[in-house]
Amino acid sequence: MASVLLIEDDASVREGLELALRRQAHTVHTAESGELGLEKLRVFQPDIVVLDLMLPGIDGFETCRRIRSAGEVPIIMLTARSDDFDIVAGLEAGADDYVTKPIEPRVLDARIRAVLRRAASEKPANDDDTGERHGHLVIDRAGLVVTKNGEPVSLTPTELKLLLELSRTPGRVYSRQQILSAVWDHDYLGDSRLVDACVQRLRAKIEDVPAKPEHVQTVRGFGYRFGRS
């Protein structure tokens, strides 16, 4: 199904998840530290990374930042705590989703498949769309290329999906739950922190002044909208 890099220092958790994911037809590479995980990332080039936040040496937050700076491979983080600080910090470091411990393998497998569906759904289409211009931002839906001031913007599959969904109907207000359903493919009442953290990362890449966004605008008490050009 997918090539998974699992970075987890707890041997029992690592071995249990590896076995469970292999039973779901995934190819699994494992690492017990952030340093080893970064090495294996370069060698195996996995489809997705499952990353524990509480790692010895280079912790999960720094490992996440380094993985994200190296490319757009999706990241699902594992956390033993549901504290807002840990979750938000992990999402801000570049994670696409998270699962709290104790981990139910079926839940993790479902999240992996959802992330991979998201990436697959953003394959280029064959049409003559030349791109939508929104000020200095151009969104080419056909080629799945986003440029700002003529320069390409590097977006993860999640960030791209979020931008495409919001910009499809400028001016329309989307609730966080609507965005979760459309972007994360969550079929339950999900965590709005996923949306807020991804919006923050997206703004940092496409807005001239992220603190005063022109494109991805907050509608207080409800959600977000894409500003009209």
TrEMBL record:
Positions bearing 4-aspartylphosphate: 52
Provenance organism: Amycolatopsis decaplanina DSM 44594
Protein name: Two-component system response regulator
Gene3D superfamilies: 3.40.50.2300, 6.10.250.690, Winged helix-like DNA-binding domain superfamily/Winged helix DNA-binding domain
Domain Response regulatory residues, every copy: 3-116
Annotated region of DNA binding: 129-228
Database matches in CDD domains: REC_OmpR (cd17574), trans_reg_C (cd00383)
Molecular function per GO: phosphorelay response regulator activity; transcription cis-regulatory region binding
SUPFAM superfamilies: C-terminal effector domain of the bipartite response regulators, CheY-like
One Gene Ontology cellular component annotation held by this UniProt entry: cytosol
